[in-house]
Amino acid sequence: MHTTEFSVSELPPGLRKLFFLWTAAKKMDGFGCMESTQLFPAALQLDRLIYTEVFTDAAGAAVDFQFVYIGAAHDKAMTSPVNGAHLTQLDGKGPGSQIWAAYVAAYQCLRPLFVSLPYIGTTESCAFTQELFVPFKDHRNGTHYIVTGVSLVDPPARLLTRLRA
Q1: pTM of this structure
Q2: Neighbouring C-alpha atoms within 13 Å toward the C-beta of 17
């Protein structure tokens, strides 16, 4: 599931900070170009941060996405290393998958996209993710990127147990 219609106040703190950094950058240049130092995990209070480069064809349509940086905590939780991999190289993540659709939508709409996906990884206490995909552009060379902040969400039964305690 992905949407551009979401309440910023309901985002986890790290995703909210990513949203506001993108908003400030967009006001400055109309697109969302930002100094990379503002997008480090420590600055965003996120250890689950992913930078993805968008590859396009001659007409400007997205044809692939490459993971160019994956935060350490997220990388450790992956079932296999994906840093440097393209989505088309990963089983179940290419065209037709939910993650592919989210990346294409984020690239096409040029606005933050709230994404919720089933969690696949080594963290057993996690049922799904809440993610914020934000598009950026490197004005020096025109390269498009999508920066994704990821928040892991406990299964509902586990959340209920925590609330009752």
Answers
A1: 0.79
A2: 15
